[in-house]
Amino acid sequence: MVGGVDQKARRAAVTKALRARKVALRKGHWRIPGPEITWIVDLRADGPAPAAAMRFEIGAWASALGPEPDGGAVDCALLADVLLEGEAGAAATALVDRLAELGTVESLAAARSRGDFADAYVDRDLRELMGE
Question: Which whole-number Å values give the CA distances from 21 to 14, 95, 100, 112, 124, in the listed order?
Answer without folding.
Answer: 11, 11, 11, 25, 32
